[in-house]
Amino acid sequence: MKVFKKIITYILILIILYLTITIGRIYKYLKEYGYSAYAIPQTMAVYFGFSDGFTVYGIPDGETSVFIGRHDYIYEELFNEHGYKEIDRLGLVGYYKKDDSVNEHYDFGIGSQNEWCHWFRVYRLSDGYKIEDFK
C-alpha cells in the first residue's frame, strides 16, 4: 500500500509540474503577442483540443475579429460543416463562401499570423464573423 501511494504521489507531482511548465510557456507567448493572463484557461483548452478557438477581440470597425486557435487545426473542416467551402487561398488567407450566398466573391476570409508558436496560433476572421459562430 505504501508503494502504491508513492507511485500515485510521483505521478501527481509530474502532472502538476507538466501543467505548471505548460502554463508558464503559454503565458510567455501570450504576453509576446500582447495578451494578458486572462486568456490562459481558454488557450489551454485550445492547446489540449477541448476548444476550436475563442475570440480575443473585435477590431473597432466591426468587420474583423481576432481569435486564438489551434496551430495544427485546419478550420476548413469546421467551415464545411456549416456549408462554407474554400473558394480561394492567397498565402496564409483562405476565402470561404456558401453555395447559396448572395455575395459575388466570398462571404469571409480567415488569415493566420506568420509567426509560429507551438501552443496556439492567432487568426483573423473578416466580414463580422467570429469563431464562436461556427460552434
Share of residues in strands: 25-35%
**How many domains, as an integer?**
1
Please state the overall shape, judged from the principal axes of the Cα atoms: elongated
Low confidence ranges: none
Can you count the helices? 3
Strand order, sheet with most strands:
1-2-6-5-4-3
Sheet/helix structural class: alpha+beta
Average pLDDT, all residues: 86
H/E order of the elements?
HHEEHEEEE
Total beta strands: 6
Please give the oligomerization state of what you see.
Answer: single chain
Distance between the termini: 46 Å
Task: Please give the largest β-sheet.
Answer: 6 strands, antiparallel
Helix content: 25-40%
Q: How large is the radius of gyration?
A: 19 Å
In words, what does this structure look like?
With 135 residues, the chain is α+β, with helices and mostly antiparallel strands. It has three helices and six strands. It has one domain (2-134). The chain has a six-stranded antiparallel β-sheet. The chain is elongated.
What is the structure about, briefly put?
By secondary structure, this protein is an alpha+beta fold. Helices cover 33% and strands 25% of the residues. Strands 1-2-6-5-4-3 form a 6-stranded antiparallel sheet.
